[in-house]
């Protein structure tokens, strides 16, 4: 008997494909699958505690999110902001920065966007592009701040982005409550913006899914292309992996830090487009339900890979949409179940390393019947 | 004759389609110093990692004290008294010497770390091993030699009696090397068994009892050190005769005319460097000798543009008659400078990038409009470098991490020579490289010098300096302490004088 297990796998896989394979494997690995399974089980236990059959809960979740054209429309509508904020977290993360400020950045982008729509309502198609440009610029510049603080003063981006979140949210509150408040409305919101600024619907059933979703897909693919295929993207990745070697190669670490934050902020601005120009057509209180923070989970579930983020965002979107159905179809579960599942998934993804470790132990035990 | 303490039989390990170890046999006797030598990529580190339980072999058997064993992890190896000091130390820089010393096997009383007894243990061991380390200082403030001694103490604390060293001397200064070799003899006297990987054959001859030679994943021979010599080992190692390290291959000295390639005037740095001036002519190899840590690193950084110097009085750097003081790295590279940095893992490569990406990293300025990555072109270049420099790599898309240390170095050398630079700053260009490849790299440097490339050679290896340089400057405490010209004529006689100027 050989004291070692014989590994013959992998020996025939050669060349480029062999290298590529590892990327796919990283995203859909065994530990990942097990993690998902554990999370689903935990969610099942929660529904048992609420006296509901977990299989019924999951089947409602599924049919509610993918069961009809309209359901799919809603799922993708909810997924749209998650793609944007997932990217807003992932791009700076590739440079080694932890952007907790996507929420503030999307609020600031919304303010910039609303300002244009509010003050230049009647410039036709021009107002539309003005609003979009203002949102992108607003998000990028607001994200540039913590980038600059980090690059030139060494202030930790986690602290500064969290603080700036409060700045942007408070500013938005002030504007909605006072300066821009619609006098005809009981709620804290602005007037409805001119129709020329609206982003057209995609007409999937009666869902609010609009062209912002297409923009989100394009953004994700562009981000992937930028990181993997362009020189500047290469610089960002290099700095994230090894700043000192990047310096020797002549890359400016400072530039890469600020740039990655600006791209992140520009991505966050997509949320403002989806929610304001695509759906509500006005800036209103609480238009983002913590999308910036959920983006962190989305980015991690998607492995920081822009394409992976599309899928993890759709998964989160399905959860949101499905949980809405739960509220209607069960007696004891509300849409808060989405939040519960989300929390479980964040915790589970955080434990994935542990799962991998345990799996390894298990595998070795099996291979060695002592 | 003492008994066999560790045996490997028919060990095979494959990485993809690379066979790193091919039915390797190895026998280690108790209480001996056993050297393992071989070319870059011969499979030495892989074999050691297998003996230490870090990686599992695909086939084969390990025997410790005659009993067949199967390691799940290094912990199993440690429990049988096998310990390893890696080339890149496994210390936590932000923790103290004492904390690192006990990390993972802390003595406890009711679950609370017993610092007192830990400190006592450390002190006892330091006394036994004749070393002295500041127990409460952070590891990041220790010199490389001190860190290595801490690694050895850690192993002793864990009661290891088989100690594995993977290229321990590569990063040490000559003084530290002497001290290290002495401590190896000490350990042997205390009954420890030692496995030593090194590329320096004189170290082998100085301490080893037995030598095993590996080539292309196989053990080709194992002989008693007393019955062999450097020349024979070198031949066994490479499979052909090589020129001894200190033998000088004469560069055909064509006096190349023209303005100096580099002219440095009273250059001072913020850390060490104090008012350094020198110049290099086309085709000249200027050696900078000196004990590591005397300002060499800062000099390289300021010349390559990683650090732009502050405006000190009268300081200037002129490259091909251009004042480049304020130029950034890119601009300097584009103008014809190239640099082999001294620390390949930290400064030269991105380990998780593949070879194509790593090649592009350093040669970027030589491609036209780098908005899109020209990876097709670079891939062809990497393939060419792989064959030109005999780099052992699975494919151009292998991660740099997957290459053996010496092969990583060859990637950097190939990359930096690619743009046909007019000046090459070469810091420790052959560190961790096997003797055959050293010859290969040296030949290439000499050839380029004959074609007119100027080389600033910074090396802590006096042999390397003496065998390549036309002129030698000695750097000490950030200042040029001596200059020797006509090295080619005086050759080895200078060794003593240069050595004296270094301390
Ligand atoms: N993790 C890995 N993945 C793929 N290939 C690897 C890996 N580790 C080592 N190899 C390959 O196995 C071979 C042996 O490598 P090893 O590190 O043992 O060489 P070495 O003798 O220590 O060389 P050096 O003197 O340069 O350190 C090399 O060809 C290397 O590319
Ligand atoms: Mg090695």
Largest binding interface between chains:
A-B, 34 and 46 residues
Head-to-tail CA distance between termini of chain B: 44 Å
Q: What's the average pLDDT of chain A?
A: 87
Evaluate the radius of gyration of chain B: 24 Å
- The arrangement of helices and strands of chain A along the chain is HHHHHHHHHHHHHHH
The number of distinct helices of chain A, counting runs of at least 4 residues, comes to 15
Identify low-pLDDT runs of chain A.
Answer: 1-21
Fraction of helical residues of chain B? 25-40%
**Assigned CATH class of the largest domain in chain B:** Alpha Beta
CATH architecture designation of the largest domain in chain B: 3-Layer(aba) Sandwich
Given helix and strand content, the structural type of chain A is mainly alpha
Supply Rg of chain A: 23 Å
Describe the structure.
- The complex is a heterodimer of chains A (370) and B (503).
- Chain A is an all-alpha fold and 370 residues long.
- Chain A has a single domain, classed as Orthogonal Bundle (ABC transporter involved in vitamin B12 uptake, BtuC), CATH 1.10.3470.
- Residues 1-21 of chain A have low confidence and may be disordered.
- Helices cover 73% and strands 0% of the residues of chain A.
- Chain A has helices spanning 15-27, 30-49, 54-66, 69-94, 102-119, 125-153, 157-179, 212-229, 231-241, 243-248, 253-280, 291-301, 306-329, 336-350, 352-367.
- Chain B has 18 helices and 22 strands.
- Chain B has helices at residues 44-51, 74-79, 97-102, 115-128, 144-157, 174-189, 201-207, 230-238, 296-304, 329-335, 344-348, 355-363, 375-388, 405-418, 435-450, 462-468, 487-490, 494-502; strands at residues 4-15, 18-29, 33-38, 59-64, 67-69, 82-85, 108-109, 112-113, 162-166, 193-197, 210-215, 218-224, 262-267, 276-280, 285-289, 316-319, 322-323, 337-340, 423-427, 454-458, 471-476, 479-484.
- In chain B, strand 21 and strand 22 (479-484) form a beta hairpin.
- With 503 residues, chain B is of the alpha/beta class.
- Chain B is globular and about 70 Å long.
- Classes of the chains: A mainly alpha (370), B alpha/beta (503).
- Chains A and B meet through helix 1, helix 9 and helix 10 of A and strand 4, helix 10, helix 11 and helix 12 of B.
- Residues 15, 18, 20, 38, 40-46, 392, 402-407, 434 of chain B line the site of adenosine-5'-triphosphate.
């Amino acid at each position: 008997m050989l004291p070692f297990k014989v590994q013959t796998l992998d020996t025939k896989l050669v060349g480029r494909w062999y290298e590529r394979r590892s990327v796919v494997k990283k995203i859909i690995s065994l530990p990942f699958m097990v993690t998902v399974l554990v999370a689903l089980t935990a969610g099942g236990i929660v529904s048992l505690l609420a006296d509901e059959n977990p299989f019924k809960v999951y089947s409602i979740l599924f049919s509610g999110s993918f069961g009809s054209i309209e359901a799919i429309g809603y799922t993708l509508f909810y997924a749209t902001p998650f793609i944007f904020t997932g990217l807003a977290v992932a791009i700076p993360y590739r440079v080694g920065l932890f952007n907790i400020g996507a929420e503030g950045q999307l609020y600031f982008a919304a303010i910039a966007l609303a300002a244009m729509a509010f003050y230049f309502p009647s410039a036709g198609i021009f107002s539309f592009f003005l609003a979009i440009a203002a949102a992108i610029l607003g998000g990028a510049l607001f994200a540039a701040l913590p980038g600059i603080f980090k690059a030139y003063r060494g202030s930790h981006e986690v602290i500064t982005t969290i603080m700036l979140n409060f700045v942007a949210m408070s500013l938005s509150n002030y504007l909605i409550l006072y300066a821009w408040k619609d006098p005809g409305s009981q709620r804290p919101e602005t007037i409805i913006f001119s129709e020329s600024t609206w982003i057209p619907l995609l007409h999937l059933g009666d869902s609010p899914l609009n062209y912002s979703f297409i923009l989100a897909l394009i953004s994700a693919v562009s981000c992937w292309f930028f990181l993997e295929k362009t020189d500047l993207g290469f610089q960002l990745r290099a700095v994230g992996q090894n700043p000192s070697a990047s310096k020797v190669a002549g890359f400016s670490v400072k530039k890469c830090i600020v740039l990655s934050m600006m791209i992140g902020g520009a991505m966050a601005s997509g949320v403002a487009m989806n929610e304001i120009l695509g759906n509500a057509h006005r800036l209103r209180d609480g238009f983002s339900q913590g999308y910036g923070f959920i983006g962190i989970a989305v980015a991690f579930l998607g492995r920081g890979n822009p394409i992976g983020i599309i899928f993890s965002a759709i998964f989160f979107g399905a959860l949101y949409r499905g949980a809405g159905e739960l509220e209607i179809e069960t007696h004891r579960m509300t849409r808060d179940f989405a939040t519960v599942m989300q929390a479980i998934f964040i915790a589970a993804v955080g434990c994935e390393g542990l799962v991998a470790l345990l799996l390894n132990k298990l595998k070795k035990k099996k291979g060695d019947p002592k | 004759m003492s008994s066999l303490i560790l045996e490997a039989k028919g060990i095979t390990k494959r990485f993809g389609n690379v066979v790193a170890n091919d039915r390797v046999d190895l026998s280690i006797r108790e209480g001996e110093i056993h050297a393992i030598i071989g070319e870059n990529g011969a499979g030495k580190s892989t074999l050691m990692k297998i003996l230490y339980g870090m990686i599992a072999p695909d086939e084969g058997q390990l025997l410790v004290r005659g009993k067949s064993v199967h390691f799940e992890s290094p912990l199993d190896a440690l429990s049988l008294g096998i310990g390893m000091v890696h080339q890149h130390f496994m210390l936590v820089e932000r923790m103290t010497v004492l904390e690192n010393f006990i990390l993972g096997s802390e003595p406890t009383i009711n679950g609370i770390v017993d610092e007192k007894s830990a400190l006592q243990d450390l002190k006892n061991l330091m006394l036994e091993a004749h070393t002295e380390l500041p127990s409460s200082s952070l590891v990041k403030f220790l010199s490389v030699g001190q860190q290595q001694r801490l690694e050895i103490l850690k192993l002793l604390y864990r009661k290891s009696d088989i100690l594995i060293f993977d290229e321990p001397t590569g990063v040490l200064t000559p003084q530290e090397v002497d001290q290290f070799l002495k401590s190896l003899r000490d350990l042997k006297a205390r009954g420890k068994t030692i496995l030593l990987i090194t590329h320096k054959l004189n170290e082998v001859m100085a301490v080893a009892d037995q030598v095993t030679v590996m080539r292309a994943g196989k053990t080709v021979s194992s002989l008693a050190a007393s019955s062999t010599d450097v020349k024979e080992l070198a031949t066994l190692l490479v499979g052909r005769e090589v020129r001894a390290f200190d033998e000088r291959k004469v560069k055909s000295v064509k006096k190349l005319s023209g303005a100096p390639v580099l002219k440095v005037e009273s250059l001072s740095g913020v850390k060490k460097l104090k008012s350094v001036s020198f110049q290099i002519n086309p085709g000249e190899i200027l050696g900078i000798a000196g004990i590591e840590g005397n300002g060499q690193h800062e000099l390289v950084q300021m010349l390559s543009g990683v650090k732009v110097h502050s405006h000190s009085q009268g300081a200037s750097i002129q490259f091909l008659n251009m004042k480049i003081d304020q130029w950034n790295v890119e601009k300097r590279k584009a103008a014809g400078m190239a640099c082999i940095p001294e620390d390949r893992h930290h400064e030269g490569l991105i380990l998780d990038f593949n070879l194509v990406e790593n090649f592009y990293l350093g040669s970027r300025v030589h491609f036209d409009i780098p908005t899109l990555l020209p990876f097709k072109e670079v891939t062809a270049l990497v393939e060419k470098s792989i064959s030109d420099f005999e780099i052992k790599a699975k494919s151009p898309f292998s991660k740099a991490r997957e290459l053996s240390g010496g092969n990583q170095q060859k990637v950097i050398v190939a990359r930096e020579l690619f743009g046909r630079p007019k000046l090459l700053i070469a810091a420790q260009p052959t560190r961790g490289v096997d003797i055959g490849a050293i010859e290969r790299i040296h030949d290439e440097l000499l050839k380029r010098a004959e074609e007119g490339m100027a080389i600033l050679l910074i090396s802590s290896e006096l042999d390397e300096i003496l065998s390549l340089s036309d002129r030698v400057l000695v750097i000490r405490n950030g200042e040029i302490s001596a200059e020797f010209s006509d090295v080619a004529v005086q050759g080895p006689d200078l060794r003593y004088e240069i050595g004296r100027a270094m301390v």
